[in-house]
Design a protein that fits this description.
heterodimer, A: alpha+beta, 6-stranded antiparallel beta sheet, B: 271 residues, 6 helices, 32% helix, globular
């Protein structure tokens, strides 16, 4: 018998053993795993970029995410796809998420990598995340319009929607031109 | 079959010509026939099954010695072993606590799978009135019986999946996903399995709606239903052991319990 499980499952196991109601850090996917999930077969290189303040300001204005953008690591594939990792506040804690953008500038996928709150993790539902798929960098992603709300996870779904919007602004205004 | 859908997959290179395909079809029929036989013997819902008869006999004539089918005997042997290793956390002799069973009296006091003596020549002694319910072990055993059929036909690579209790043989890596909710279409990737089994019990799906949505997972010592909305999976070399151990995992929620290592199993709890 052989069994190979991803490392995040062990974290889930431990998370379940904490008392009910406590905040549990749950990592669902690693960066390597999310590359495979979104862009199976594509080879990515990690690139470090300092995003100019002017771009950051545009990102903040267009997305409404006030929490400062601090990421410097990005992944680009030989085919021209991008993988961007970011975090936004859910209700009280941070949600780490990934946005894959294909070489046509469309969203290939959105995945939740880490979720640190006891409630509202319905944002990991495939059906909800798939609303982002195929949307282009010039499109607006407005919560409750293009992207539907999730009852019981309103804040998490709103903030992730805004977070995806800010990464698409980053792509449109800066990464697609580099 | 077995209260669920049963899926059989046989290695692709055996589908080379019509003759081979016809033979595969025959093998499949034998697999389903053997798995169906497990259900006929061991269903506690079917009043004519061997288990239902044993339950009636134990109440009518405690202490009776009876001959049983070798498969039922084998399941009792495995059940007693796992019951002992888990300190009684897995016990398939406490069916009186099931939501689908009318709680009647204290006649089952002190009984459980351990109150049955396994004698020689597939004979057993029913020492006390007992309500055996093999719902937590028979499906895994049926999958193992199906795999035995495939091995006898010299099938090298195959998979049998009975509603999430599955076993795979051969040199392939099978990705295993866990359904997150009954009605959604989200899945959690759990890992890759080669030549082994995985079983899952969940308090999310297994509920008796007639009894107000009570969970089928029951603590054998207190009779209380496990109500926590989690999924419990166990990877093991045989499906029957994996199936049993999911119940101990659901009750104790201890992935470090020594019986997993002792029985060569890997526990996984998923929220």
């Amino acid at each position: 018998m052989q069994w190979h499980s991803p490392s995040y499952l062990a974290v889930i196991c431990l998370a379940t053993m904490t008392p009910f109601g406590e905040v549990c850090a749950k990592q669902y996917l690693s960066v390597d795993e999310v590359k495979q999930v979104m862009f199976s077969g594509e080879v990515f290189t990690k690139i470090d970029i300092d995003i100019p303040e002017l771009i950051k300001e545009k990102m903040r204005k267009e997305s409404g995410v006030r929490h400062g953008y601090q990421q410097k690591h990005f992944w680009k594939s030989t085919q021209g796809s991008w993988l961007l990792i970011d975090e936004v506040v859910g209700k009280h804690e941070m949600i780490t998420y990934a946005v894959g953008i294909n070489n046509k500038g469309q969203i290939q996928g959105v995945e939740i990598l880490e979720y640190n709150e006891s409630y509202g993790e319905q944002i990991r539902e495939k059906k909800w995340l798939e609303q982002f798929k195929g949307r282009g960098a010039i499109e607006q992603l407005r919560f409750n319009q293009e992207i539907k709300n999730i009852t019981g996870a309103t804040l998490s779904s709103k903030h992730v929607t805004n977070g995806v919007q800010r990464l698409m602004v980053l792509y449109r205004e800066y990464l697609s031109r580099t | 079959m077995l209260g669920t859908f049963v899926e059989l997959w046989i290695e692709e290179d055996r589908y080379t010509n019509p003759e081979q395909m016809a033979f595969n079809h025959e093998i499949g029929n034998v697999v389903y026939q053997q798995m169906g036989k497990v259900q006929t013997l061991m269903s506690s819902h079917d009043t004519s099954s061997e288990i239902a008869q044993l339950n009636r006999l134990s109440k009518a004539t405690p202490g009776i010695v009876c001959s049983i089918h070798p498969w039922t005997y084998e399941v009792f042997m495995i059940a007693q072993k796992v019951c002992k290793e888990t300190g009684g956390l897995f016990d398939c002799g406490i069916g009186q606590y099931s939501p689908s069973y009318p709680r009647s009296s204290d006649q089952f006091q002190g009984s459980g799978i351990g109150s049955i003596d396994l004698l020689q020549n597939q004979q057993i002694r029913l020492n006390l009135p007992v309500h055996i319910d093999l719902g937590g072990i028979a499906k895994g055993y049926a999958v193992d019986r199906g795999i035995e059929v495939l091995k006898n036909f010299e099938v090298k690579t195959a998979l049998i999946n009975a509603g999430g209790d599955l076993r795979i043989i051969g040199d392939i890596e099978q990705p295993i996903y866990l359904k997150e909710s009954l009605y959604g279409d989200a899945y959690i990737y759990m890992g890759k399995l080669t030549d082994g089994a995985v079983a899952t019990s969940s308090t999310r799906f297994g509920r008796d709606n007639k009894k107000g949505g009570m969970s089928y997972l029951i603590h054998p010592k207190t009779g209380e239903c496990i109500e926590d909305d989690l999924s419990y999976s166990v990877v093991a070399s045989t499906c029957v052991v994996a199936d049993c151990l999911t119940k101990a995992l659901a009750i104790e929620k201890n992935i470090y319990a020594p019986y997993f290592k002792k029985l060569g199993a890997i526990p996984i709890i998923v929220e």
